[in-house]
Amino acid sequence: MEYFSTRGGEKVSASLAIQEGLAPDGGLYVPARFPAYSIEEICDKSYVEMAAGIFSLYLREFSPEQIAEAAVNAYLPNFPKAVAPCVGLGDTGVLELWHGPTAAFKDMALQVLPRLMKLAGSRCGNDRELVVLTATSGDTGKAALEGFKDVPGVKIIVFYPKDGVSATQELQMRTTGGSNTYVIGVEGNFDDCQTGVKALFADAGLNRQLAENGKQFTSANSINWGRLLPQIVYYYYGYSQMCRAGRVELGAPIDIAVPTGNFGNILAAWYAKKMGLPVHRLLCASNENDVLTEVLTTGVYNSRRPLLKTTSPSMDILVSSNFERFLFDLSGNNAEMTAQWFRDLRESGRFTVEPPILAAMQEAVYGGKADSAQAAATIKKVYDEYGYLLDPHTAVGYTVVEEYWRSHGREYPVLLASTANPYKFSQAVLEALGLHVENVRETDMPQLLEDHTGVPIPESLRQIASLPVRHNRFCAKDKMRDTVTDILRLA
Ligand SMILES: *Cc1c(COP(=O)(O)O)cnc(C)c1O
Questions:
Q1: How many whole angstroms separate alpha carbon 461 and alpha carbon 454?
Q2: Nearest-CA neighbor of 167 among 434, 433, 444?
Q3: N or C: which end of the chain has fewer CB within 10 A?
Q4: Model confidence pLDDT, tens digit, residues 219-272
Q5: Domains identified in the chain and CATH numbers
Q6: Is 142's pLDDT higher than 90?
Q7: How far apart are CA 156 and CA 241, in angstroms?
C-alpha cells in the first residue's frame, strides 16, 4: 500500500509515512486506497486477531508475523482485563477505550505506534535517533510517554498547556519514569503548543542541525498514520460486540458517536465505514469549542475565536488537524483544493467549502455540541439511572446522541466511543454529581469519588499519587525551540 500527502506530491511507503509523521509539504499522509475488511466472521475474532488483520491490509511491507507480534505485545500485556469492552446503556453501546496504562483511548494507538516505528525504521535502513515531538491537550502526552518510555534509539519530548490540563493529567505526565522522557509545561493553551510543535517540524535550519547530529523529528500526534490505523480496529470490534450482545443483527447499520477534538478518533470510524463496516452516520460531538459543529452546519470553518476552557479539556481545540484528511477524501482526493483551504485557514483563520462538499459532509457526519453544564447534567442522569460513571468527554458524546435522537428519531443503535476513564477528571465528575469539592485537594478527589460511588479507581491512576514528580520544566510559548535545542544539546 502506498501513501500520499493531502497536499499532493510523491507517493511514499507506509514505513516512510509512519517515520515522518507529517508530509514535507505540510499535508497529512493518507493511504492510496481503502481495502475492504469483511464483517463476515467478525464475531469469532479476538481483538488481537482483528488488529493484525486490519494492520496487514495497510502495511504490506511487513510480514504477517511481524505484525502479529506487534499486535500481541501492544494489547495483551498492557490491557490485562479487556482491550475494549462494550457496555450497554439502554440503546447505546458504550465502547470503553480506556483500559490501557494511562486510562484514556490514546493508549489504543500509542501502545502500537512505537512498535510500528521500529519496524519502519529497520525497513528504511534508518539508524538516526528519533525525537518524538508531541503537543498534548492532556491525554496524548501521557499515552505517548508510556508508549515510548525507554524505547532504544528514541527520545520523547512532550509540550502541554500549563493551565489547560486536569491535575491528574499533569501529575501523570510529570511523574513519568524513563531516561528518554521530557515533559514541558507551556505558558499558553493547546493551540499554542500545537502551533509551536508544527513550527519546529517545519523549521528547516533546526531539521538540518538535527540531521548533522544523527537525529530526526517524528510525531506521535494523530497526524501520524501509525496512530490512526490502530483506531480503525476498535470500531469493528465494537460492532462485533454489539452483534454478540444481540443489540444489532450482523450486517445491519449502526450510528457511531465520538466526542471529538482533533478529528482523529472519528476519522478512524469514517475509514472503518469506507472499509465496509455498516455505519449509517457518524455523530461528531463537540464542547463549547464548536468549530466542527459550525463547519458541519454552515460549511464555514472559522478558527478566529477565543479558545474556551471546558470540563472536557482534551476537546479544547480550534484547529482540528485531521479534518484535512476528511475533506481531502470528500473532495475526491483533490490536493490542490485541500491545500487552498488550509492555506486560507493559516492566513485568514477561516475557509469555506462549496455546497456539494457541505452536502457530502452532512450526509456522512452530524455535528452536535454540548456545553459543560449539559455534560454535567448527563453525568448525573446516567449515574442515577444506571449507576455508571461517564467522564466529561464521553458525557458530551452521550448528550449529543440524545439530542440527535430527539431531532432525527431513534432509527439505529448507537456505538459511543468512551474516550477516558472518569477518574482522570474527578473534579468535574464530583461536581456533576453535586458533591462539594471546595475544600478538597485535587489529588484527594479520586478517593472521594470512589468512596461516594463504589466505582473502583483504575490501578494506574491510584499509583500516581505516591510517585515522585520528576519533570519540572516550564517555558513561554515563544521559547519552545530553545527548550528543544537545550534538551538535545544542539545549541
Ligand atoms: C484526545 C481525546 C479526545 C479527542 O480525540 P480526537 O482524536 O482528538 O478527536 C476526546 N476525549 C478524550 C478523553 C481524549 O483524550
A1: 16
A2: 444
A3: C
A4: 888 889 999 999 999 999 999 999 999 999 999 999 999 999 999 999 999 999
A5: 86-103+226-423 (3.40.50.1100)
A6: yes
A7: 35
